[in-house]
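Re-run requested by the PI after the first attempt was lost when the workstation crashed. Everything re-entered from the original request form. Ligand of interest: calcium ion.
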Amino acid sequence: MNPNKYSIIIGLAVVAAFTIIVAQSFRPNEIPNGFINDCANCHINPNGGGTRNAFGSAVENGFLSQPGPGGHVQWGSALASLDSDGDGFTNGEELQDPSGVWTGGSIGNPALVTNPGDPNSHPDITSVDRSNDISLPGNYTLEQNYPNPFNPSTVINFSVPEQSNVSLTIYNSLGQFVEEIVNENLSAGNYNVQWRAVNLSSGVYYYTLATQNFRESKKMILVK
Ligand SMILES: [Ca+2]
Ligand SMILES: [Ca+2]
């Protein structure tokens, strides 16, 4: 082989390899908390390259500044509001920037980040958190869930004025047991529960808060 041709081929190979490495490494830095899952955010192979996962395909098909490996990810409310992997949580919820306002730097709680391209990686289905309202409630309360109607996640707020064994249970419209989403001994305080309806059909459901000294039910509507 002509030595000049040989060196041109080597040169092209180096450029191609460099382009692939650059393409794999910069995109995780263009989504909020993207470094946590790195290339696994966009590719089935967690080391990057090859077939894209559902989030990577969404990016590739509509959220690049230009097609191909040189395109930059256009993070914003549109991409944040999609649920690319169909796990019931938007890309923004998974990456801790639900509104898509991130433009660099940290946002949300990195410890809660899940993979927007992997349906098996998603936020906890049910979580009980102390509310930001740290006042001590004088009464038991059970608030109306929001959003309502909902699909598939909703939030239920309640308060307990004393340390209590708390149960929060979902029933269907026939009064049949569906799921107990809280069963904990909680200290006096205000609480938020996020609940995600998994494998349930549209319809009316009831949620019941029960303690030793209190019991109340409210209605909510799942619309799929
Ligand atoms: Ca998702
Ligand atoms: Ca996911």
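Saved to the shared folder this time. The two ends are 65 Å apart (CA to CA).
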